[in-house]
Amino acid sequence: MENGQTIQDRPLIIQSDRTLLLDVHSPSANDCRNQIVAFSELVKAPEHIHTYYISAISLWNATSAGLETSEILKRLERWSKFDVPQNVTGYISDISTRFGKLEIVPYSDKSYRLKVHDSFIAKALEANTKLHGLLHKTANANEFEIMKFDRGSAKLALIKLGYPVDDKIPLVKADHVPMKLRVELRDYQSMARQSLLGDMGPGTGFGTIVMPCGSGKTVVGLSIMEKLQTRTLILCPNVVAVHQWINEIVAKTDIPRDQIGEYSGEKKEIKPITVCTYQVLTYRNTKDDDYPHMKVIQESNWGLVIYDEVHMLPAPVFKITAELQSVYRAGLTATLIREDGKEDDVFSLVGPKRYDVPWTDLSQKGWIASAYCVEVRVPLVDDLALPYAIATRRDKYKIASTNAAKDRVIEALLQKHHGESILIIGQYLDQLKQVQKTFGFPMITGSTSNSKRDELYARFKEGLDKVIIVSKVANFAIDLPDASVAIQISGTFGSRQEEAQRLGRILRPKKNSCYFYSVVSKFTVEEEFSANRQKFLVEQGYKYIVEEL
Fold first, then answer.
1. 225: closest CA among 261, 178, 276?
2. Which of 49, 117, 393, 521 could form a disulfide with 403 if both were Cys (CB 3.0 to 4.6 A apart)?
């Protein structure tokens, strides 16, 4: 015992590979979880033991937010059932304290200084050939010169070597763009803005905000715009999202419509507030050509860049992001999970995670809807047994995902939720077309024109259509506030990112609870991938019920 604490009050087992095993049945499990999520990442969450992992990025996110190394170690010692392994404390002490040892500070009109507060690291950087051309020696052995145009590239190269940079260069406001927000911020939205902008001094004004779908990330973005009053570029995953941002700006601010530009495949407008798609930035005629639209964007004098759904940021856009280091930057997302593992790119170029709020916290306060997550398992139809048995692993997944037996579940759920607003979401177009043929509902896919999409979304919002079928185009940035039921009949393998976004389609605040169904073929690889997809939902505190048909 220590200060009245018993071994039962310590629900954490810390392993030498930096995994943290949390006994969810312990009375102290929630208190422990709330303390360790600040510096660790959830790996898996089955019924009894949840596994977290301490990574370099999770530690740097924590230390950049002001959580000191000593406090991280103190929390582990507080909750660990056994002694914390020495190699784990050593790793945390080494890695977490690296943040702050490299600082970029102002120097001249053409260059910055990289100050290294550790002579051993300075010598290692000088000897590393990958940094030649980015870091230039100075008379001070612990300082390097970085040319202004290499600022982002140097930060990215350094983090790849395990050395995050604390960027202390004051950001520059561009042309003044007056605006006023017409809505009042909720408390957590104000906290999100404050966490990013801070005192507006060096080291503030850039980073990533993680908030649930339906909790008002767009409003947070608008509030940052109101605070900065500057030329703003908003980058979005698709044209529908562009239109929604423009509609929100018009409805919730006093910015005149003629001051808001759309830069997409349909229009090419550069205005004081410009909303652009990632796709148009990454367009080029051939793989050897330059990206023509990136040049247009780079040449404009932006004071703020907002990256909507920052976890989707395409690799080529990192190039422009690396060069836009002198402007305020805000990444918005419901999950920082990137399936390509480029979280460190987001950390170094957009900025570290500045704010994160648990989904269930907002659900309990009524800011987002309560959700019931149910996995319904169905057997393969008989005539698929042989094709499934001899198929490749990828084809097995498609066969299981498009199992015709799922139609029975769809029919049963439509009857159960008759009169409610329902989304049927899937990955495979042939499957969705067959569902449309069977049930007759309107459908939105990648080939649906933007005008037709807007029309169908409007009909759904107005209640004229109670059910619509949507492909993966509806995964991101689609505002369907009246949807209360989602029936997922297929998905992108084990993507936790997609699972989070699809649940988010039904989380807008409403009087009653919402339901998220995932229909899975049992005894197939789809079950395995589904287990991975569940991780994010369980991490956020949702109970995941499994039923069999």
1. 178
2. 521
